[in-house]
Design brief:
The chain is an alpha/beta fold. The protein has five domains: 187 residues, Ribosomal Protein S5, domain 2 (2-Layer Sandwich); 100 residues, no CATH class; 74 residues; 151 residues, no CATH class; 31 residues, no CATH class. It is elongated and about 85 Å long.
């Protein structure tokens, strides 16, 4: 028999044995070596440690047992490794508990460089796939599954050689290191000096194949496949409404400008704003013609903010009492916000699954408007009049977008009845905030100086909203904080070409997530809108903003489904489409089916006869 035939026979034989065991509970264990670094009198040297990953039936919990004790970065790495493994395999892991046991004979310097190995070991445990004993890896794990940089690359490769390993996986670009003051190609050095193969591993999918010999088939989804009549009708209605709104606002402000007695200096400033925004309105119309509706809507918002601010400036400059004008302007917007909040304070009845996301997005924009008005009052209290007027303009126009998102629900057909309960999403909000906290904690172990940054402020905002029982805003802020924290880790040490590659990777992840949600019966409208917005930034060579928005697209892709689950409405979705789509050696799942058991017995008998015949 050739090796390929034998491999297939062994796989079927393993299936037969597992079926005989009739194992109903899931239990799996994988052992993987790790490379660390320890301090000595002569400096840092590489050291080998061991990792055991056990997966049992459970509740999605993560447990860590280390000896010697490790720093918190190892705990964060374990949790992230679990998340990445489940994401890469597209498996819903809420029904499993994960146990990580790390042992070392010497104290190893704290660091997250075991993260990639932990993720691969978790993937192998979930799929019950054997790992090769001659391979070892070092690398941090990023939330999107890419492998991040580490320190002491040469020392770790040398430790792998001393430990008897023939292949070492290192992060991208780290097959080079400085040895005795000279930049050295570690891959060439290790191959010629130690006969050790050093390979760069871009992501956990590549590493999983290197460790197991099994490749994970990647889904490929085109954006055009996702943009259906539902998305088009909703986004067209939204963009058209905003464009009409800003056009009227511009015409009214231009008319007032022509009759204004404002000072020449102020009129020059306002004229500059209006001239620029006249061109913007023409550009927005072209975006609608190209069916880039969310891009048009976003640019319409920015245009309306600037035109509204120009309108406020004209009125302020000619007001008899400038202080009274500012007071009245803020008071008027405050009344609009209060009226909107009163109408949204009760649970809402919706009539389409996709209306859930539109309703929540409208609420998020509303709460942002409320926050911006507070900023306007704060600016007024510090005598920053123009800051107060600008924030007031942003608050008023953001409230308009909230109304636009809400009115977009009218473009959806009535297909069901949904009682949206704010209390029902409390647990989901708490879960999303906890996830954001974990992401920021892990990011802080990899990158210094994140405390007090915009990332921590966004997380603090999410925590505050959660405490105030504003669950919708807490969810949105938590998703944003998590996305930003993840992106900070993923972009570190990347050049422009690598940033573009990262963008394409994250765009593919976002589109695949959107496609899975669409198959279940909901279309993540906000997520798909962010994908198109990111692509517009990419066309303008603004890779940083493109990455930011495609990252948000990925974070928001599961918003509808998670809320629908929280509202206990999942029966309205297509339950046949779940996250599980990767099934290497998951034979124990067949054990409870007597038909499969009988087939397994027959297959086993056939294999035994086949092996006996082959010997003869």
């Amino acid at each position: 028999m050739n090796s390929g035939s034998m491999k297939r026979v062994l796989v079927f034989f393993g299936c037969f044995v597992l079926l005989l065991s009739q194992a109903h509970a899931f239990e799996s264990n994988v052992h993987l070596p790790l490379i660390g670094v320890q301090e000595t009198d002569e400096g840092a040297i590489g050291a080998i440690a061991s990792l055991d990953v056990e997966v049992h039936d459970g509740e999605g919990r993560v447990f860590l047992d280390t000896l010697p004790l490790t720093k918190i970065d190892t705990q964060a790495s374990a949790r992230l490794a679990k998340d990445v493994a489940c994401l890469s395999l597209r498996i819903d892991c809420k029904a499993y508990d994960f146990f990580y046991v790390i042992r070392s004979n010497a104290p190893i310097i704290g660091g997250p460089s075991a993260g990639a190995s932990m993720a691969v070991a978790t993937m192998a445990a979930l799929t019950k796939t054997p790992v090769m004993s001659d391979v070892i890896m070092t690398g941090t794990i990023n939330p999107d599954g890419s492998i991040g940089t580490i320190g002491s690359a040469f020392e770790k490769v040398q430790a792998a050689y001393n430990g008897g390993f023939s292949r070492v996986l290192v992060p991208p670009t780290q097959s080079f290191d400085v040895i005795d003051g000279v930049l050295t190609n570690i891959s060439e050095y290790a191959q010629t000096t130690w006969n050790v193969s050093v390979q760069e591993a871009e992501d956990v999918e590549y590493a999983f194949e290197a460790f197991t010999g099994y490749a994970i088939e990647q889904e490929m989804t085109n954006q055009s496949e996702l943009i259906n009549s539902l998305y088009t009708s909703v986004m067209y209605a939204m963009s058209s409404r905003l464009v009409n709104y800003v056009s009227v606002l511009y015409e009214n402000t231009t008319r007032v400008f022509g009759m204004s007695n404002a000072s020449d200096a102020l009129k020059d400033e306002v004229k500059e704003i209006l001239d620029a925004r006249n061109q913007s309105i023409q550009n927005i119309t072209s975006y609608i013609a190209k069916e880039e509706y969310y891009v048009a809507a976003s640019k319409a918002l920015q245009t309306s903010i600037d035109v509204r601010y120009a309108s406020f400036l004209l009125s302020y400059d000619t007001a008899l009492s400038k202080n009274e004008f500012v007071n009245q302007t803020l008071a008027n917007i405050s009344q609009e916000i209060a009226a909107w909040e009163l109408s949204m304070s009760r649970n809402k009845t919706l009539h389409n699954l996709n209306a859930v996301e539109l309703f929540m997005t409208a609420l998020d924009r509303f709460y942002e408007s409320k926050y911006l008005l507070e900023s306007a009052y704060n600016a007024q209290n510090t005598n920053d009049v123009f800051g107060a007027l600008y924030n007031a303009a942003v608050a008023k126009e953001r409230l308009q977008t909230a109304e636009t998102w809400l009115s977009s629900i009218d473009a959806l057909p009535n297909t069901t009845t949904i009682e949206f309960s704010f209390d029902a999403i409390a647990e989901l909000a708490n879960e999303r905030v906890s996830q954001a906290e974990s992401s920021l904690t892990y990011a802080s172990t990899v990158i210094d100086g994140l405390d007090g940054s915009g990332l921590s402020q966004t997380l603090n905002s999410a925590q505050t909203y959660l405490f105030e029982e504003n669950y919708v805003r807490a969810i949105f802020e938590a998703l944003k904080a998590r996305g930003d924290a993840n992106l900070v880790m993923e972009v570190r040490n990347l050049n422009e070409e690598a940033l573009i590659n990262l963008y394409e990777r994250k765009r593919a992840l976002a589109l695949n997530s959107i496609a899975r949600e669409k198959e279940r019966g909901t279309l993540p409208l906000l997520s798909l809108a962010y994908v198109t917005f990111a692509q517009d930034h990419k066309k303008s060579n603004n890779v940083v903003d493109a990455l930011r928005y495609v990252n948000y697209a990925y974070q928001y892709a599961g918003l509808s489904s998670s809320v629908i689950d929280a509202l206990d409405l999942s029966q309205l979705q297509d339950e046949s489409v779940r996250l599980i789509s990767f099934k290497i050696l998951r034979f124990d799942e067949l054990g409870a089916n007597p038909v499969y058991f009988s087939l397994g017995v027959l297959a086993g008998a056939f294999i035994i006869l086949f092996l006996v015949y082959a010997r003869r």
